């Protein structure tokens, strides 16, 4: 079985930054990119808040830059997905793509998170036929059409703003009577003439013969004036949060109720010696590219210290 000193799982800002630091520290890290190469940022549009890019940068370009930077310092980037883990003893063993095993002295888990769905049967039924969780990926198909985005956070606002440049009309469906998004994103969304925010509304189903033609809506659920109606739309975009990719580590590490890996306060240490968690898989609070990158840096520094000890 192949053995490495430092194994990094995941290719978002956390994974690649860990690769840069571990590479520069001479740990000869091996990084497996996982299913979504470059992580969630490759499905986002413009990133305006990553330091060092005063004009903004596309999520795809940012991840390309980070990847190249990691490779420059001898981080070996491989395609492959960690499908099982045995952290019961050292060296730790990971299974890649259900077949190849690799052991390591230190492990940096930077597996990220993915978008959540509402759990409606209709989401499955219309998957790829009008239901999406990625405006950047699928917005193109809705030029001059009507779409709805579910959610009231920054992701929902960002998706709605992006879609407003393509679609003729964008509804934002928010279950509460306020947006949770940051002030600037709220203002941009509320002031966009193509966007209408439907507060206290929920999507409870979809209809259409050959793809989505509309959504069954519920207004003011559980209140005296609860009502329902159908909203004609051509596409539904989900932007209601994310699920961390921690399943394969669940038997060995402490997770919170959602599945985020719990680390020691202000460190990427998981409680298992030499195992560190960085980025969105361990961050239910900030979930930013820059905070993910920072925790990847911390994880690599801790891995180096651990290996030196
Ligand atoms: P959030 O958790 O912030 O928001 C999720 C939204 O979806 C909330 O409005 C929530 O409603 C709603 N929601 C959750 N479940 C359901 C459901 N079953 N039905 C209907 N609505 C539902 O997630 P985001 O993905 O928006 O953001 C995650 C983090 O990433 C945040 O910290 C955000 O600031 C950050 N982010 C930053 C960006 C940037 O700075 N450019 C861009 C995108 C994200 P409720 O409020 O009722 O719970």
3D structure, described in words:
- The chain has 309 residues and is α/β, with parallel strands linked by helices.
- It folds into 2 domains: 2-114 and 242-308, FAD/NAD(P)-binding domain, CATH 3.50.50.60; 117-238, FAD/NAD(P)-binding domain.
- 24% of the residues lie in helices and 28% in strands.
- It contains 7 helices and 19 strands.
- It has helices spanning 13-24, 59-72, 121-125, 135-138, 154-164, 183-190, 289-308, and strands at residues 2-9, 30-32, 46-47, 57-58, 76-78, 82-86, 92-96, 100-109, 113-115, 131-132, 146-150, 169-174, 195-199, 201-207, 214-219, 227-232, 235-238, 242-244, 275-277.
- α1 runs parallel beside α7 (289-308) and α5 (154-164) packs parallel to α6 (183-190).
- The longest helix is centred in the C-terminal third of the chain and has 20 residues, at 289-308.
- The two termini are 24 Å apart.
- It binds NADPH dihydro-nicotinamide-adenine-dinucleotide phosphate.
- NADPH dihydro-nicotinamide-adenine-dinucleotide phosphate is lined by residues 49, 118, 150-156, 158, 175-176, 180, 182, 239-242, 287.
């Amino acid at each position: 079985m192949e053995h490495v000193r430092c194994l990094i799982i995941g290719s978002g800002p956390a994974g690649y930054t860990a690769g840069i630091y571990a590479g520069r520290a001479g740990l000869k890290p091996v990084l497996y990119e996982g299913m979504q190469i470059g992580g969630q940022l490759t499905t986002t549009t413009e990133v305006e808040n990553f330091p060092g890019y005063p004009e903004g940068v596309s999520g795809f370009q940012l991840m390309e830059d980070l990847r190249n930077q990691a490779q420059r310092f001898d981080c070996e980037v491989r395609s492959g997905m960690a499908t099982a883990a045995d952290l019961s003893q050292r060296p730790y063993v990971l299974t890649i793509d259900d077949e190849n095993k690799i052991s390591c002295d230190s492990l940096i888990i930077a597996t990220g998170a993915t978008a959540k769905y509402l759990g409606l049967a209709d989401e499955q039924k219309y998957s790829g036929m009008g239901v999406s969780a990625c405006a950047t990926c699928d917005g193109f198909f809705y030029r001059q059409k009507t779409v709805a985005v579910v959610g009231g956070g920054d992701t929902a606002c960002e998706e709605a703003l992006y879609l407003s440049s393509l679609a003729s009309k964008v509804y934002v469906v928010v279950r509460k009577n306020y947006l949770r998004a940051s002030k600037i994103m709220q203002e941009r969304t509320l002031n966009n003439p193509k966007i209408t925010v439907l507060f206290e509304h929920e999507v409870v189903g979809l209809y259409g013969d050959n793809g989505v033609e509309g959504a069954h809506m519920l207004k003011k659920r559980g209140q005296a004036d609860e009502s329902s109606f159908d909203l004609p739309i051509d596409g539904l975009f989900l932007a209601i949060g994310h699920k961390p990719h921690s399943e394969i580590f669940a038997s060995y590490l402490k997770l919170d109720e959602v599945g985020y890996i719990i680390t020691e306060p202000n460190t990427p240490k998981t409680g298992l010696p030499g195992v560190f968690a960085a980025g969105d898989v361990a961050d239910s609070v900030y979930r930013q590219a820059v905070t993910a990158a920072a925790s990847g840096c911390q994880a690599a520094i801790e891995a180096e210290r651990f290996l030196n000890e």
